C-alpha cells in the first residue's frame, strides 16, 4: 500500500489510520456517503474488539470464498462506496485472478456516484465495470434498492458482497444465489444469511481471498475441499466468541 | 423527543434511528464533522453489543456524575459537535439543573463551527455559552487542541466531557480536574482516565444525569454517598463484561 498518507508503516495504528485516510478521501471524491462514514465507524469498533487481525475461521472463510468464486458459472463482485474507497486496486486484482465481474451496487443509489465509482475502479485497472445498465431487479426490495444489471448480479450464481445491507443480503439469498459476505459484525443479518460469512476487515479480507484464489486456481479438488470443510455457523460462533471474549 | 423524523416511536430501532437522524442533521447544519460520523458509528457498535440499554453500573456512574456537578466549585460541561447534535436541549437542561457552565470545545477546532454550535445551544435555551474566548491552554497538547476559556474549563474543578478524545481527556486529568466522561468504549483512554467513566449512550446518559441531579439537589449527604460509593474500575470492568458477554 503506497497511499499519500502521513503515517509511518511502523506506527502501531498504521492500518487503522490508512483505512480512515482512504475513507475520507472517498468522501472527497464523492464515492463514500455519510452512511458509509457511520458504517466505517461501526466496523472500526468491531475490528478493535476482534484484535484487528484475521482470525483462523475468517481465513477459512476467505479460502472457501475463493473456491466459490473460482468454481462459479458466473461470479460477480458487488462494489459499494466504502469497498471502492477502501480496496479499489485489491478488488480489481481479485476480479482478474478469479474471473469474476465487478458491479457497482449502492444502497443509496445515485447515477453520479455509480459513475464515479466505476471510473475510480477503472483508474485502478478495471477493464469493465457493471452496474450502469441496471435493467434487472432483486425481488422484494424497494425500486431503487432493487436495481442490478440483468447480465451481472441478476444472472450470477455466486456474488461477493462486501459490507452489504441486511435487506439486500437477505433478498439476494432468496434468489438462490451463493452469497459471500464480508462483514465485521457476526450478528448482522448480512453475516447471518451468507453462504460464507467473512468476519474480517475488508482491507485484510480481499487480498487474502485473492491469495487463496491464486493457490486454488486450477485445482478442483482443493476448491471442493475448501468449500466442503467450511461451516458458516461455526465461523459465526467463532467470530462472536473472538469479539466477545477478546481475540 | 419530538424531532421531525419519519420513524414511529414504537419502532424497535427508534432510539437508534433518531440518533442517526440527529447526527445527519448535525452534518447539514455544519456542526458534526466527518470524524464525528465515524465516531458515531463506533458508538453504535458498542451500544449494540451493550444491548442498547443503561446498565446498572452506568446508572451509578450517572448518579455520581450528578453529585460531582452539584458539589463542584465550578463545573463545566464541555460540548463537541456530536454532543451538540445529539442532545442539545438535554445539555442545556443539565446545565440549568446543576448550575454548570456550557463550553464548546472541539477536537477539530474552527471558529465557524464553534459559533454554529454555540448558536444551536442558544436555540435550545442556553443563556450563555463559553468557548469563544479561548484564552486558556491545556498543558501538553498541540496549540489548536489546547484551547479553552481561561474562566471556563481552564478554571473548572469538575468537567463533564462527553465523547472526548483520549489525549485531551488525559491532559485534563493531569491538570487535576475531576473528569466525568461519557464514552461507550470502556477500553478507551478517555474512559480509563476518567474520575467517573459513564459507559452509556449520550442520548440516555445526559437525561439520566439530570434526573439524578434533581433528586440529589440540596442533599449534601446523598451527594457524598453517590460519590463515595462509586468505584471507577468496577464500573469499567462491569461495562466490559456487558459488552463482551452480552448484556
From TrEMBL, chains A, B:
Task performed by this protein: Catalyzes the condensation of (R)-4-phosphopantoate and beta-alanine to 4'-phosphopantothenate in the CoA biosynthesis pathway.
Gene3D superfamilies for the chain: Phosphopantoate/pantothenate synthetase
An example Gene Ontology biological process: coenzyme A biosynthetic process
UniProt pathway annotation: Cofactor biosynthesis; coenzyme A biosynthesis
Primary enzyme class: ligase
Catalytic reactions on record: (R)-4-phosphopantoate + beta-alanine + ATP = (R)-4'-phosphopantothenate + AMP + diphosphate + H(+)
EC number, as in UniProt: 6.3.2.36
Organism: Haloarcula salinisoli
UniProt GO molecular function: acid-amino acid ligase activity; ATP binding
Membership in a protein family: Belongs to the archaeal phosphopantothenate synthetase family.
Subunit structure: Homodimer.
Entry keywords, A to Z: ATP-binding, Coenzyme A biosynthesis, Ligase, Nucleotide-binding
NCBIfam families according to UniProt: phpantohe_syn_Arch, PRK13761.1
Pfam families per UniProt: PPS_PS (PF02006)
InterPro entries: PPS/PS, PPS/PS_sf
Name of this chain's protein: 4-phosphopantoate--beta-alanine ligase
Residues reported in the UniProt entry to bind ATP: 20, 42, 183-185, 189-190, 201-202
Amino acid at each position: 500500500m503506497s497511499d499519500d498518507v502521513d503515517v509511518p508503516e511502523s506506527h502501531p495504528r498504521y492500518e487503522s489510520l490508512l483505512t480512515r485516510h482512504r475513507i475520507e478521501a472517498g468522501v472527497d471524491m464523492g464515492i463514500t456517503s455519510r452512511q458509509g462514514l457511520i458504517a466505517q465507524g461501526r466496523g472500526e469498533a468491531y475490528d478493535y474488539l476482534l484484535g484487528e487481525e484475521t482470525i483462523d475461521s475468517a481465513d477459512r472463510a476467505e479460502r472457501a470464498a475463493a473456491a466459490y468464486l473460482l468454481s462459479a458459472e458466473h461470479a460477480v463482485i458487488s462494489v459499494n462506496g466504502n469497498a471502492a474507497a477502501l480496496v479499489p486496486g485489491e478488488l480489481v486484482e481479485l476480479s482478474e485472478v478469479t474471473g469474476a465481474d465487478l458491479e457497482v451496487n449502492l444502497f443509496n443509489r445515485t447515477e453520479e456516484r455509480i459513475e464515479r465509482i466505476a471510473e475510480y475502479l477503472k483508474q485502478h485497472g478495471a477493464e469493465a465495470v457493471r452496474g450502469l445498465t441496471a435493467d434487472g431487479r432483486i425481488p422484494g426490495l424497494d425500486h431503487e434498492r432493487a436495481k442490478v444489471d440483468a447480465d451481472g448480479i441478476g444472472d450470477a450464481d455466486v456474488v461477493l458482497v462486501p459490507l452489504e445491507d441486511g435487506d439486500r443480503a437477505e433478498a439476494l439469498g432468496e434468489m438462490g444465489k451463493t452469497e459471500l459476505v464480508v462483514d465485521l459484525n457476526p450478528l448482522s443479518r448480512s453475516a447471518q444469511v451468507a453462504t460464507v460469512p467473512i468476519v474480517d476487515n475488508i482491507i485484510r479480507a480481499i487480498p487474502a481471498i485473492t491469495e487463496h484464489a491464486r493457490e486454488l486456481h486450477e485445482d478442483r479438488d482443493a476448491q471442493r475441499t475448501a468449500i466442503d470443510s467450511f461451516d458458516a455457523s461455526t465461523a459465526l460462533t467463532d467470530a462472536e466468541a473472538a469479539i466477545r471474549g477478546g481475540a
